[in-house]
Amino acid sequence: MKIVFMGTPDFALGSLKALIESKHSVEAVFTQPDKPVGRKQILTPPPVKSLALENGIKVYQPEKIKGSDALKIINDINPDVIVVVAYGKILPAEILTSARFGAINVHASLLPEYRGAAPIQWAVLNGDSETGVCIMQMDEGLDTGDIILCEKTEIGENETSAELFDRLSVIGANALIKALDLIESGKAVKTPQPKGEYTYASMIDKSFCPIDWNKSALEIHNQVRGLQTWPVATTVIGNKTVKIHKTAKCDIKGGKAGEVMESTKRLIISCGDGKCLEILELQSEGKRKMDAKAFLAGNKIETNTVIGG
Is the Cβ–Cβ distance between 108 and 115 less than 8 Å? Predict the structure, then answer.
């Protein structure tokens, strides 16, 4: 089938690569405009653009879809289907219906759970034990379209959102190829999503970073896992904000919320439920990430002091 692909970040790479390697033909790629990145604000192309150009695929990067030449370009291509994977723009109805089989989306949750921008992070933040990928026929709603197929996977108790992100990218790519085969053969069964309650996965920003040590050890552990590798959980140690990259549950009896229970070779902090977390990896401002033993060698932290705030 002739395909127009719309996607932007790393998560979309797995699906685009699978399409390139499949029997289908990717006729064009739409992605977000290049953006300045890093301290030097170097103009950087989206990952999807780089992969497309490496494979000789025409790339379009409109600032806005509505009112652009996108519809004319798509109509000229006359694709069988539009594949959308984390594109980052709302598509108008005339584009959603412009291809023979419309537009389908690779969405990283078990819909109607986690409609919205950050389904992977929220699944980890909420401590879910299971998630997955749904291939959905797109409509004008926010992730409200009929489901073509879903693939489930367990979430490890210490798995970060970054690790889950990588796994779901592969799962989504495989599910996409299966869905396209069903669509092409006329065997795709489209199941409407249940009406009523759903979970909305709002965008994640730096306001989610500060750790409240009054919360339970499990909640804080999930926060640390869920905010990897961006924007990263933080706490205040000795009047300095420190990024917390990795934690582990431990059996040491806790004290006050935020109290340092051990700080020689291990950094163990009490949480609000009386249980403790061991901080395994952390990072001072302007420094590299390091394990707790290396951090403590250069940063003396007294036991029984309280961090955070």
Answer: no
**Percent of residues, the chain, with pLDDT higher than 90:** 90
pLDDT tens-digit readout, 276-290: 999 999 999 889 999
DSSP string across the chain: -EEEEEE-SGGGHHHHHHHHHSSSEEEEEE-PPPEEETTTTEEE--HHHHHHHHTT--EE--S-STTSSHHHHHHHH--SEEEEES--SPPPHHHHTSSTT-EEEEESS-TTTTEES-HHHHHHHTT-SEEEEEEEE--SSSS-SPEEEEEEEE--TT--HHHHHHHHHHHHHHHHHHHHHHHHHT----BPPPSS---EEPPP-GGG-B--TTS-HHHHHHHHHHTTTTT-EEEEETTEEEEEEEEEEE-----STTBEEE-SSSEEEE-TTS-EEEEEEEEETTS--EEHHHHHHHS---TT-B---
Place of tokens 């004008």: 140
pLDDT in tens, 42-94: 899 999 999 999 999 999 999 998 878 999 999 999 999 999 999 999 999 99
Q: What is the pLDDT of residues 154-180, one digit of tens each?
A: 999 999 999 999 999 999 999 999 999
Give me the amino acid identity at 76. Answer: D
Whether residue 37 has pLDDT greater than 90: no
Cα–Cα dist 62/68, whole Å: 7
Average pLDDT, the chain: 95
Q: Kindly tell me the number of DSSP H helices and DSSP E strands found in the chain.
A: 8, 17
